[in-house]
């Protein structure tokens, strides 16, 4: 496998991953080409079109990589990370890291969770039980990757719609484990640690308390879960889900994941009445790095992708949100109340 490189811009400190093995991915170089649903490599009966499964939910008596499954986890055919073994040897000597061109190899594991056997394209088309199974697969794979001892961080994310990053329409999500700690995750650790040293409190929980006192951005708050629109939202109708039971994501109970996935499914459906069916969005599980699981509580972010990144965003690294979190929460509360 070609080595992926994590390169750093010495002028800004921003980092990019050069992953040339992904150039063959559908839509990688032609963003104007819509996702095709004619050939579906994720459909039941097309198991030979994917790498061999590493985890699945199957009917009793069926064999791996054959029909009879409800959910499969397979290695990504176009992974972002390369392999660790010997990857540096694939680079020419002229590409050696230097003061002005710093890079390190970016290795790890990249898996795809195929969420259903038939062709469905939207999260809200999954049943409550099916989505709970998806969350359970995420948890079990995060636990496996964490227990392997090879990685420092695991990212779980779901891209729905082409403008949210999906290259195939069939419902799926991804799990990426690496020995690298992304800068944004590291910044979360630094801020959480600084807050604890100054106050003795948990930054995420103290922020939630402040949100509760303010009240304008809270969508739902009970003994199990807090749901709100973050003050500094990344997108319009950005929704955050925080389970209140504590513990790491890899040890979350089936019941907690059932409640959480149900809340995500319901809010994703409510958003359709505001935005329209088939809106693109990203769903992410935000969790601490693996060697410091108590740094902050894990949570889930749902971020509709309704605007494009343009010149200002690229120049400043600051998002422009055309609809305030306060307006978003007000509308979502009203729609949830009407739905009962």
Q: Describe it for me?
A:
It is a single chain. By secondary structure, the chain is of the alpha+beta class. The protein has 2 domains: 5-21 and 34-178, HIT family, subunit A (2-Layer Sandwich); 183-339, 2-Layer Sandwich (HIT family, subunit A). 27% of the residues lie in helices and 20% in strands. It has helices at residues 128-147, 183-199, 203-214, 254-275, 311-316, 325-339; strands at residues 5-8, 15-18, 55-58, 69-75, 103-105, 108-114, 153-160, 172-178, 218-221, 225-228, 239-243, 281-286, 299-304. The strands form 2 sheets. The chain has a 10-stranded antiparallel beta sheet with strand order 3-4-6-8-7-12-13-11-10-9, with helices on both faces. The protein has a 3-stranded antiparallel beta sheet with strand order 2-1-5, with no helix packed on it. The radius of gyration is 20 Å and the shape is globular. The N and C termini lie far apart (52 Å).
CATH-level-2 architecture of the largest domain: 2-Layer Sandwich
Number of domains: 2
- Low-pLDDT stretches are 84-94
**Major sheet size, sense and barrel closure:** 10 strands, antiparallel
Number of helical runs? 6
Mean pLDDT: 92
**Helix proportion range:** 25-40%
From N to C, what is the helix and strand string? Answer: EEEEEEHEEHHEEEHEEHH
- The CATH topology of the largest domain is what? HIT family, subunit A
Distance between the termini: 52 Å
How are the strands of the biggest sheet laid out side by side? Answer: 3-4-6-8-7-12-13-11-10-9
